[in-house]
Design goal:
about 180 residues, mainly alpha, Arp2/3 complex 21 kDa subunit ARPC3, about 0% strand, globular
Length: about 180
């Protein structure tokens, strides 16, 4: 089995279990839940087939829905995020060149680029998820502020995890030389 497949399977399992067992049991500020499992879709290689990307997004969201009994809300929101992903990459990075199997991480996009990419997709995800949960436009501005705060918390959590693991990889590479 290819190393990329193994790495992504392990990443999927770790992120989903961390989301379900840790983050879903803790609410910050009463209603803020960072959805770190989105990192799985965000870090899939640039050249991932669009159909495969949507299928993986659906299965990822469905696995969270299974544990949270949320009737497909996460699946719908993650599929929207995955659908928008190629367009967001082209919008923010029109001249970006990448090699086969390369991931859109900090090393490739830079800190500012990674934050724009992540926040935009997380905001789309959070917007659809929140409005599907509430299913009302009543108190729109309050709902929008909730979406914004959750998007910031998720983006910050994703950034912390990416920075932790990218610094570990740098240390490993430095130690090998």
């Amino acid at each position: 089995m290819n190393n990329t497949y193994v790495k992504n399977i392990v990443r999927f399992l770790i992120l989903v279990l961390f989301q379900v067992l840790v983050l879903d049991t803790v609410q910050f500020g009463g209603y803020v839940i960072p959805y770190i499992y989105l990192l799985f879709i965000l870090l899939l290689p640039f050249d991932t087939n669009k159909s495969l990307l949507l299928l993986l997004a659906f299965l990822t969201g469905l696995s969270i829905d299974f544990f949270e009994n949320s009737l497909g809300l996460h699946a719908a929101a993650v599929v929207l995020m995955a659908f928008a992903r190629p367009g967001v990459i082209k919008f923010y990075f029109p001249t970006l060149e990448h090699v086969k199997g390369e991931e859109p991480g900090l090393a490739k996009l830079g800190l500012t680029g990674f934050l724009k990419y992540t926040f935009t997709l997380v905001f789309l995800y959070q917007l659809l998820l929140t409005f599907l949960e509430i299913f009302s436009l009543h108190d729109f501005l309050r709902t929008l502020s909730h979406v914004f705060v959750n998007s910031l918390a998720t983006t910050l959590g994703i950034l912390i995890i990416v920075m932790l693991f990218s610094s570990r990889n740098k240390k490993k590479k430095v130690g090998v030389r």
